[in-house]
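Quick start: read one record
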Amino acid sequence: MDVQDVFQLQALNTSSPQTLSYHILSGSFRSFSLFLLAFSPSERSIFHLKTIPAFGPHQYLAANQHKTRIYATSWALPPSLSSWEVERSNPWTLMHLNSVPITATSSYITVPPPYRHVYSTGGPTGEVHRVNQVTGGLEEKIQQILFVPESELGSADKTRKALRYGSHGIEFTPSHDYAFVPVVGTQTIEMYRRDSRGYLVHLSSIKSPRGENANDGPRHVKIHPNGKVLYCVTEHSNHVDAYQISPTSLTHIESRSLIPKGAELPDDSKYHFRGDTLMLSQPGANTLHPRVLITTTRGSAPELRGWLSIFSLDEFGRFTDLSAEDTVERYQTPTSGGKANAIDLLAKDMSGLGVWILLTDDDEVTASASGTGAIRVLEWDGWGTGGVKVVAEWPSDADELQDSSAEKIQGASHAIWLD
């Protein structure tokens, strides 16, 4: 199958999922470019479609509801955000709309309903920008949120190094009325109310359930569709914590380890795991609520492979059995993941019983000139179906870029499904 066949398959929107291809957009920690790809389930292959010049390494990506507009962060200096239009023509491409300056390097960006504002966070600051309702581009900043005292902002580190101890994400409840920001260094999750103008009003700071000296490092959060449960991955202590959401705060409910029993490292080990990210599965025709929560953690060195864990959830968003390891599916990632091991999920069909897992890899071996597997598609069909399997990766040993002049990806940072 060549690239043209992939495009033709994608155009057949009424075909069954197994005859379609699904588009992927990825950034890289080691390239300024974005990479447009297509995954063919029938061929079980990933095809390179286009390399798009962009504005810095580590483009963290977010999309609007129709996935026609993309918003991206980067590690470039001076700090900025960029907006893009997805042209679903034949062939697909990506067109830059505009870029706007921000105060500090951002690590995360989101555009919640009603899609009139983009919210980004990173290190000492977070920002709110209006979205142009005609073009979808970024407009002026209407608010800056501080995670350091205002008197310290001038001297605060605003480079990507501040992401190690500053703000690291932002997520909204399904009602879009509340936002939550995990802050790695303060061991807190900051809670905000969003007003009718799109501004965030601070409500409370929720401390680690393991105490101020736990050094948890809350990194990323997701919120159950019922709006009652928040999940948080901790970078340093490798937990996923579940909280009950109230109108003004969070109450810790329960926790799970991101690492299977027996994989923990001794306290004096020179290696360590680094909790990374999490995603909820999509409800399907047979399931009105997410069936699982999927998390990742990375290894601190190439010798230490990371872990992907799939946790069973009940209809209320609670872990189904805290005492049973058999309610967790564990998958050891092919490498440490480097600075990546980020995921995005796509339901295999309307039943919600299977999922394609997009996994990015920035391990030193993967990112070498001859490296393979910067982007992988994993498959999971549910409990008792043989576990997680790798079905495609790009680049692969057998893969050659269709455009020999195009830049080859060397390690992927964040990738999203565009379909």
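Residues 1-19, 401-405 have pLDDT under 50 and may be disordered.
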